[in-house]
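Below: protein 1.
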Amino acid sequence: MEVHVAEERPPEDQKKPRLKRHILLRVDSWIDSTMWNAGFQLAETWEEITIFFRRFRVRGWKKLFFEVLGEGMTLGTAGFVLLLALAQPAFEETKKDWRNHGDFAVTFLDRYGNLIGHRGIIHENSVPIDELPDHLIKAVLATEDRRFFEHFGIDFLGLARAMSENARAGTVVQGGSTLTQQLAKNLFLTNERSIERKIKEAFLALWLEANLTKKEILSLYLDRAYMGGGTFGAAAAAQFYFGKPLTEVNLAESAMLAGLFKAPAKYAPHVNLPAARARANEVLSNMVQGGIMTEGQVIAARRNPASVIDRDEAEAPDFFLDWAFDEVQRIAAKFKDHTLVVRTTIDTGLQKAAEEAVAANLREYGESYNVKQGALVMIENGGAVRAMVGGRDYGESQFNRASRALRQPGSSFKVYTYSLAMESGLTPDSPIVDAPISWGNWSPHNYGNSYAGRIDIKTALAKSINTIPVRLAKDKLGPGAIDKIMAEAKKFGVETPIRKDVTIPIGTSEVTVLDQATAYAVFPAGGLQSRRHGIGQITNYAGDILYDFERDEPAPERVLSETAAAYMNQMLTRVPYVGTARRAAVDGVLTGGKTGTTQAYRDAWFCGFTGNYTAAVWFGNDDYTSSNNMTGGSLPAMTFKALMDYAHQGIDLRPIPGVETPPPEAQKEIAKAKPAEEEGKLPPMVRPRSLSAETTRMIRGIARMLDEAKPIVLDPQKVASVD
């Protein structure tokens, strides 16, 4: 019997996996073949390119030339990108309304109502280039930039010529900056001497050339340059020196104006007429040498040099006026009237003394200490800024180092950490250990790398030991110590943003001199805000009072408890007698303060106070080069003492809060201080006194009585009966 066996067929669900595997194998095969073909085609193409470029292969010196050229292009491109990156921050300035200086016209008075200067549109009455005398334009271009209409902002030929002349003379006799570069510096940059600034200046010069016409550039240059005597712009200078409009100046006067651009303070004719005339003669020679005029055309100007109208030689406090003008614009922005009369807080006697103190010490010690700049801010206790020095010479550099320069304060910043420590319950006698300490990867060191072991806090502050404020911040102030120090500095009046870093207890975050003066004025105020201000009152020309500081500003808030303020004053008044600031002790007057010296001796500070005044003093170099071992206890302390000795002559001395009995060391020094005439010599500066302290009090009392007196009401019938 035949048996038929049925053929077994795979079920449908087994066919599907086989089909999927088959499709995947085909896809894989296609990918492999495609990639191989692509690689083969790419190799063939590269081979064809290589064969093509073999036609251009060079050997010998040609190969060397092209190798150098190629490397040069590579490095040049990288350098250009680097320069562009460095100049990028400067380009941010061009986004602002840099053409507009506002519509303010401000007349400034000192604290007693005497005229001290002007700022605003009253000094910017520009004259169109087409209306200016031809010889004025020629004089400026012959002296400042002969190829002005030929270059594109940077004059490489002029730069090469200047370098050649300077090398031949062995000193700097010619500058390589174009007029456009000088304008870029005046509009956007500072006088800081650095490679970065020169790079920014070059790029901004190119930007100005691309966005302005030559006439516009020249017009801005003539309008914005400082011309000495507190004047800005050629038009204001012509009125100030010659008493005439710029359109009416003659050749001799044009030459004198053109000579001011280089060094307005040195050649200002109202200060040094012979030097101004000699400089004008150089300008006339430049015009002849440049082929702009002939000797015959300038001979009359040589024989009849310009004369100037008589002016008071008293210099305006220009650094203070620049800062005060910014303050006025901030305060008066809401006022409809922008033509204003402003009574400031400046005391011209103290201002002159401050300028002389800084200048005299730089003249005598600047070279030996290798330091070229200084700045100072003086505040009368109560908040009024009485003096401000922003540099050694406003004519050379209008950059205000008192209000704008950011410098590391060094140990003068330690007071904020010590103040917090006093607030936390510690006292000047609290013990603490001076020993090596680390905070993360940072390990601060003391001056001389020595350690004192177990000491008290007042000794640590007087000796300016670095490890102690770091130990206080790390171990005593609790979590968030750095944030607390930053907040404390801000409460004291430091307006510059503080950089958050564990190193700030010893003063690594930059501040301004104005910041430190404002903050230190808290101590003689007994822990209250110093209320630092430079504007006392603002009126319009009709006499309406638009702003009054005492009326419109809030009362001071307490930023340091009375106990903590007393402890800080007790410690700070030891520093000038047993600590690092022995050259700062004012003769016969209890003095407190703190020195500051930064890494590599780049910055030196003394911030100090008496019961009457507070002052912060800084010395250093604009290019951040190191001084010759200058510390805060040297030049800054000496300058502070010179100013304070002058300021305290003939005034009533106020006590320092919390220091009822001066430290024994201070009592000895104060008792030893004798009048200068007993020592056989006159004081370096004598403060004139027109009224005694008693007479001043009496007059103030009379004024107060008149203010409080009721108005007199006359009887109309009695007035009518008088005939």
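Below: protein 2.
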Amino acid sequence: MVRVACDPREGLDPARQILSDDKIQELRGAAQAVRQARLDADSADLLNQIQADGQFNGSHVEDILNQFCHSYVVAGERNPTLSVEYNGADYETLRTLWAAAQGICDDAVAAGAAAPFFTNFHSSPAQNKQAAGKGNVGATLDSRTWQGNLLVNLGGATFNMHINIKN
């Protein structure tokens, strides 16, 4: 740091920027460690329960939750779109499994778990976004028609997975 500050080609401004960047990285790492510890302390042990429960095999429930967990820890995207497109019947099956994940959390609370990390699992029926005037994807040229949503709170933060439905 002193070398950068004393170097006539660099100077104080770059040295200050390096210090600032280092402090931001340190704070970001500490915040991520706190969020990871909260996730690891899930009293319902939901991720392990889902992995062990055969009804979830082959579904995207575990993948979606793992993506949300990663986003929670690194403060990433909270409203992603699943890369797999579903048909209407398969989406309804996914919604049923999503509700079953809430059931695991409810059972854990009934058995004495203090405060599950995952709460408020809910979903919306497929909606024709184009007909509802919501056909554009943000400020992009991409468009969508039918879409559903799977929502859940992780440590109090709401995450929403958009599911594109092919009809």
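The CA atoms of residues 3 and 127 lie 60 Å apart.
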